[in-house]
Amino acid sequence: MEAQRITRIEGSALPMRGNDIDTDRIMPARYLRSVTFEGLEQHLFEDERKGSAAGDKAVHTHPFDDPRYRGATILIVNGNFGCGSSREHAPQGLHRSGVRAVVGESFSEIFFGNSLMIGLPCITAPPERIRELMDLVEKQPNARLRIDLQAGTCESNGFACSIALPPHARQALVSGTWDTTGLLLERYEEVDAVAARLPYVGGF
Amino acid sequence: MGKTLLQKVWDLHTVRTLPTGQTQLFIGLHLVHEVTSPQAFDVLRARGWKVARPDRTFATVDHIVPTRERTRPFVDILAEGMIASLERNCRDFGVRLAGLDDDRQGIVHVIGPELGLTQPAMTIACGDSHTSTHGAFGAVAFGIGTSQVRDVLASQCLAMEPMKVRRIRVSGALPPGVYAKDVILTIINRLGVGGGVGYAYEYAGDTLERMSMDERMTICNMSIEGGARVGYINPDDTTFAYIRGRPFAPPGDSFEAARRWWRSMASDPDARYDDDVVIRAEELTPVVTWGVNPGQSVPVTGRVPVDGDSGMDRQALADARGYMGFTGGETIAGMRVDVAFIGSCTNSRLSDLREAARIVRGRHVAPHVKALVVPGSASVKNAAEREGLDDVFRAAGFEWRGAGCSMCLGMNPDKLEGRQVCASSSNRNFKGRQGSPTGRTLLMSPAMVAAAAIAGEVTDVRDFVQEKVGGGG
Ligand code: SF4
């Protein structure tokens, strides 16, 4: 299947502060009880948002409830975002809610890979830049961010920084080959050759 | 220059370099469970693909299964739908399934090793982050998401990026009452929950070499909690002795050939590591988590951190303490617990249950505590029952359940309620992890959970038992 080429992402942003935000927080396990990914966008961070025990007690409005960030397509996060459970339901929920890129200090590997597989780039920038970006967006929630994956830049109203994406991820996104199954099924004789040299496959 | 096991396995399983620069890696064993596979099978169906290697694929049910009433159809319609969907997918695509009534059923990371499916120098993938458990056998095993489950089903391959290797050497004798769980919790505390990102952890050293396979699985299981997607231990005689004779082990004479090959795949003595860390086992104590990630732990004799404690991010500290209801400076021992859970792919194997049973034998759970034991597999359950461990637990006031993930993640009816505090032998103390959005989890070894259940509060298992405590996971 032809995947879409993803080179530029433009839109307003939503800052989600905190290190080590795990996928249990992003998508509580009870929403893994369905055999499809449909409707997951309704349950993002549910246990800490308005209407939950923790959310109703919270001093600050949860960024995902904050009307100023409604319609944001770029999520800004701190370090080790998406750690913990491998549930793809977390990036699926974000993507289905309209998020088209996540910019942060660092990501858990599994979350990064799951996001890439659905065409959701997880882009990194140095901690100081992330701090500036979060401050900027909190002050000017309507600011539009422009991310250029090819050029490796992120800019907005007088702000500009370079962003990083591992070469393979950049390549996969800009060439529209992030849906890997097709690639893996090409030249299948080479796969059979590898299987044939593994003693545990053919028998010791 | 020698090579690490990771490099050898990686090279041997490499099909080619993809146009993206990633490595196409052949997956030797794909383990499948009900929760992360339905959408993947749906894509195969929609695109008219087959499962590439049903002979390298094995499925079971664990995450959503009830551990008490198992009559079909379940009262829980979603759980019923999910199990029925896996049954249908396995039937349609020719995948072997250890289903609900199969005596091989259990947590996927418990049954893989038990059945001898898990072997050294394999690449193993599963739609579950604790797939690192299988690294205890010297396999390169890692968790994947549902789109990658689709890739493996359709092609038996994954597009992967190389990993660095950090060797973590643990040396010396573990003091009595200190277990594999305390070792790994200490490692995560020292290196951080994100410290392993980009790395595979190779656990080595004489302490590890003396450990049983159950203990090694506990260590490798929690690699991902330190950010390392892969954790492994070089295979040795302990590994080979465990595998021999299991249903999927190489049969008869071929076992010797297998053993020679497995040994040759271990890291070379002159292998180069990207990083090296040393841990002294003698210095370790029982560890308890006080916060909302597995790195936020203290020795059982310690206190909840206060502002200004070194190395703590102020915001994270305040947030974790707020959630847990601490102000800082409290001793962790003496924290009242409402629930005691012995189970999960980290600590639900026979040796874990034996060790916990040793502590509860002849004692009784505190009146305010709800305590449950959930064996990791049907086979662990049966073996424990043959030894009478179920009677020991029941007599002490524990509930004795069927195999599954249960209260590790609360996808079935076993959940915390409200702000309950749970002493748990599982691996994650994330906010809301055990099924209540405000529930609180304290991670510790199964022996420590048993002691907490009896005392009704967190307590030092070293004081609790007079006789020498040792062995077990
Ligand atoms: S026991 Fe817990 S951590 Fe292990 S596979 Fe099940 S849910 Fe995941």
Quick structural summary:
Chain A is α/β, with parallel strands linked by helices and 204 residues long. In chain A, 33% of the residues lie in helices and 16% in strands. The longest helix of chain A is centred in the middle third of the chain and has 13 residues, at 127-139.
User: In what range is the share of β-strand residues of chain A?
Assistant: 15-25%
Tally of strands of chain A: 7
- Helix count, DSSP H or I runs of 4 or more residues of chain A: 9
Sheet with the most strands: spatial strand order of chain A:
4-3-2-1-5-6-7
CATH superfamily of chain A: Aconitase, domain 4
Q: Helical element count of chain B?
A: 16
Helical content of chain A stands at 25-40%
Approximate strand percentage of chain B: 15-25%
Structural class of chain A: alpha/beta
CATH topology of chain A: Aconitase, domain 4
Secondary structural class of chain B: alpha/beta
CATH architectural designation of chain A: Alpha-Beta Barrel
Mean pLDDT of chain A: 95
Looking at the chains present, what oligomeric state does this protein adopt?
A: heterodimer
State Rg of chain B.
Answer: 21 Å
Mean pLDDT of chain B: 96
Spatial shape of chain B: globular
